[in-house]
Design brief:
With about 120 residues, the protein is mainly alpha-helical. It contains 5 helices and 2 strands, in the order αβααβαα. It binds a DNA duplex (13 and 13 nucleotides) through α2, α3 and β2.
DNA sequence: GCAATGACGCTCT
DNA sequence: CAGAGCGCCATTG
């Protein structure tokens, strides 16, 4: 356990309830640049029972990243839906609607605010 | 110490 | 929009 991991966990805990963040977002937040993979690796080292809301972290596609254990994917989705996060038919989350923007505690999301990036 | 693997992301097709 | 390829770095055998 390095201080880097603790930094990642701290950033994840800052994610508001009912909102999700991407691995790359967390990576940039803790100063890892675009090393999203290391964020995922750090979360992988997380104990089974933890106060860190790891389920609020998804990939840039707005989809839940599968782990070695299949059941985890379902658990993550259930926990997110319990917080109000909605999944579309493809099983993906609209980052434009539920994506957490640092510094923006509450987003009103009146229509699409950031069409530049698209949902690609 | 080298090689393979992985909770990812971006770009091209 | 979906799939495939390449790159990034830490952990593990």
């Amino acid at each position: 356990m390095q201080g880097r991991n603790a930094l990642v966990y701290a950033a994840v805990q800052r994610i508001p309830r009912g909102r999700v963040a991407t691995y790359g977002q967390i990576a940039q937040m803790v100063g890892l640049g675009g090393l999203a993979r290391q964020v995922g690796y750090a979360l992988n080292a997380l104990p089974a029972r933890t106060a860190v809301p790891w389920h609020r972290v998804i990939n840039a596609r707005g989809q839940i990243s599968l782990r070695r254990v299949i059941g985890a994917e379902i658990e993550q989705r259930i926990r997110l839906e319990a917080e109000g996060v909605r999944f579309n038919a493809a099983g993906r989350v609209s980052l434009a609607d539920f994506g957490w923007v640092a510094g923006q505690a509450q987003v009103r999301r009146r229509g699409r605010r950031r069409p530049s990036r698209g949902s690609r």
